[in-house]
Amino acid sequence: MQEKIQKYLEEVRSFAISGATELEEFRLKYLGRKGILPELFNSFKDVPNDRKRETGLLLNDLKNKVEEKINALKSSLVDPAETKHEALDLTRPVDHLQAGSRHPLSIVRNQIIDIFSRIGFTVMEDREIEDDWHNFTALNFPEEHPARDMQDTFFIEKHPDIALRTHTSSVQIRSMEKFKPPIRMIFPGRVFRNEVISARAHCIFHQVEGLYVDKNVSFADLKQTLLYFGKEMFGDKTEIRLRPSYFPFTEPSGELDVSCNICGGAGCNICKYTGWVEILGCGMVDPAVLENCHIDSSIYTGFAFGMGIERTTMLKYQIRDLRLFFENDLRFLKQFRSAI
Ligand code: DAH
């Protein structure tokens, strides 16, 4: 057997080819199912014990040589002229990659986070499926009170206590249960209301909630914070005004208008010729809400606000139909490029 292997080794060493067919024949001859190597390995069991070691080494050597030979011949078969040509064609245009872009709602959400983080607000997110306590009761919505009808809630039929959150105010409660004051946070997230879909409303949309609880937080702090936000978001010339309003969880409550960034206050169809557009609800956190979260309202006060991301984005980019945000039409989405 050893002699046989030596003979094959010699054959492999001197083997030369002129084309791919010969190489394939060679491969089959040695490595094919009934080829020389499988046959040799098969008859290895008949080799007397005292010769097994030597024969085994030789046999492995043959196998390696065959494989090396095949690989070497294979690479020599590739036309060298062709490879050279391909590797050196530096004039070939690059494959055109279509770069994606962020969704306008993500851009504005990130801008809001960025603006508030510069004045010390941190971000917290929480669940979209909420219980009655966090979405309503702790926020001072009394049971059976008509204020609950302000928001068309998606309840879970089998669990009247569970609902899709109707606002991100629920995360105010979650944060106050979790942290001790000072709390200075914003809560971005998705909210759900049973609304008929139109150019101005959708059953799924996004809000950012803000909360600041500490000793001596005043209405003046709220106003200054919102003025800063308005200028950062809509431009340096932006002015704000507050109108009195009602929310169960804030007292006093207000709605914030910013001067129309499109006509600069002169009047246009976006601001309905008033010069002002409403962007958020806000107020001083009702002491009852603080107490619901075991925060001593004789020591601490706070302000809160909540804004719609869709609405802010529409104002910022002059988008007139809210449904565009959800249709994934590339012609619309392609227009938004941002570093954030
Ligand atoms: N949660 C209110 C809504 O969804 C918005 C809001 C108003 C949030 C006043 C607040 C606030 O934090 O103080 O309409």
Characterise this structure.
The chain has 340 residues and is of the alpha+beta class. The chain has 2 domains: 86 residues; 236 residues, BirA Bifunctional Protein, domain 2. It has 12 helices and 10 strands. Strands 1-5-6-10-9-8-7 form a 7-stranded mixed sheet, sandwiched between helices. The protein has a 3-stranded antiparallel sheet with strand order 2-4-3. Helix 1 runs parallel beside helix 4 and helix 2 packs antiparallel against helix 4. It is elongated. It starts with a helix and ends in a 7-residue tail after the last helix. The protein binds 3,4-dihydroxyphenylalanine (DAH).
Task: List its salient traits.
340 residues, alpha+beta, 7-stranded mixed sheet, 10 strands, 39% helix, 21% strand
